[in-house]
Amino acid sequence: MSGIKHNSDRQLLLQISEGDEQAFAMLVKAYSGLLFTYLVKITKDQDIASDVVQEIFTQLWLTRESLGEVESFRSWLFVISRHHAVRMLKNIDREYKKREEWHQITQTAADGLEAQDEASLKEAYDILVKNAVDRLPPQQKKVWMLARLEGKKYAEIAEEMQISRETVKKYLQIASSSIVDYIRNNGLPIIISFLIIKL
Questions:
Q1: CATH T-level assignment (fold) for domain 135-195
Q2: Nearest CA to 188 among 132, 111, 109?
Q3: Which residues form a coiled coil (predicted)?
Q4: Where are the beta strands (DSSP E) in 26-100?
């Protein structure tokens, strides 16, 4: 039986080597299913197996003149298909690693830029706050600095400045509002102003 099959393959290959498209269609029909099943076992992926099958038969047709020299077509087909599949898997793995490396590089660069932007933004913000504080009336400026820079409580500030606790609270509210207004009017986005709404 195998001898008949072998002779049948040899006849098809000879016909295909002479450009017989019908013989090639018969060969594809006879082997594509078997080859696909074999390649799925190797690649563990139906899409890759399907691609390899298509590429193998395309390659066979493009190099059909040499098919007449093939002795055991089935063994030869499975060997070259296996090599092709392994090569494709290596290429896919290499491409995946390249994408991962590229992702890490771009992510690192993006993180660096983000940190740089954040540092620049904070520096601009600090300068604006300092300028805004410098423009406050002396009493409001002193209350704000004691509360926000030194972290003192209302009662401590009231005692130090010899004013009431309510006056401290009022000065702090007015000072904070003035600082926010200054920042809004001097080029920083409004949303940044909200970051200091609790000043």
A1: Arc Repressor Mutant, subunit A (1.10.10)
A2: 132
A3: none
A4: none
Residues in contact with 172: Cβ distance below 8 Å, sequence separation at least 6, in sequence order: 140, 143, 144, 147, 154, 199
CATH architecture entry for 2-91: Orthogonal Bundle (1.10)
Residue type, 98: K
* Amino acid 1: pLDDT: 40
Tokens of 190: 């409004």
Instruction: Give the whole-angstrom CA distance, residue 143 versus residue 176.
Output: 11
The answer to whether the predicted template modeling score (pTM) of the entire model surpasses 0.70 is no
Residue ranges covered by each domain of the chain: 2-91, 135-195
CB 96 within 8 Å of CB 88: no
Reported as a single tens digit per residue, the pLDDT across 53-108 is 888 888 888 888 888 788 788 888 888 888 888 888 887 777 777 667 666 655 65
